[in-house]
Design brief:
Layout (H helix, E strand, L loop, with lengths): L5 H19 L4 H4 L2 E7 L5 E7 L5 H26 L6 E6 L2 H20 L1
Parallel strand pairs: 2-3
Antiparallel strand pairs: 1-2
Keywords: Cytoplasm, Ribosome biogenesis
Family: Belongs to the RbfA family.
Subcellular location: Cytoplasm
Length: 119
């Protein structure tokens, strides 16, 4: 796997800070409380995968949140442009980060195996 350039890493880091600010300016309270786990920009910085954390949202709520985020993408991009001074901003593709759920399931499996070995 090739290392990311320093400029790309800086862009991702800055977006990871600015996107939550943009979300906090929106009127939908479900969007205000979302946490940004990771931002992964494409090489040309035209697209960015934004991984979000909403641990207490149901699958239906997550679908609705993603729909609202698609509608608010322009506002979020405008905020990022004004906050950073950039002349272009990547298109955002929002996804929920499920790595913590997977880790919790693995921990539960390991705990169950440990109990079975002890008995």
């Amino acid at each position: 796997m090739k290392e990311k350039s320093v400029k790309l890493q800086r862009t991702e880091s800055l977006l990871k800070e600015v996107i939550p600010e943009a979300l906090s300016t929106l009127s939908d309270t479900r969007l205000n409380s979302l946490g940004v786990v990771e931002v992964d920009c494409s090489k040309g910085k035209y697209h960015a995968e934004v991984y979000l954390d909403a641990p207490f949202a149901t699958p239906e709520e997550k679908r609705e949140i993603l729909r609202q985020l698609r509608l608010a993408e322009g506002t979020i991009r405008d905020h990022c442009l004004s906050a950073t001074g950039w002349f272009k901003c990547p298109r955002f593709h929002f996804n929920f980060d499920d790595s913590t759920d997977k880790a919790n399931r693995l921990d539960a499996i390991f705990e169950q195996l440990k109990k079975e070995r002890e008995s």
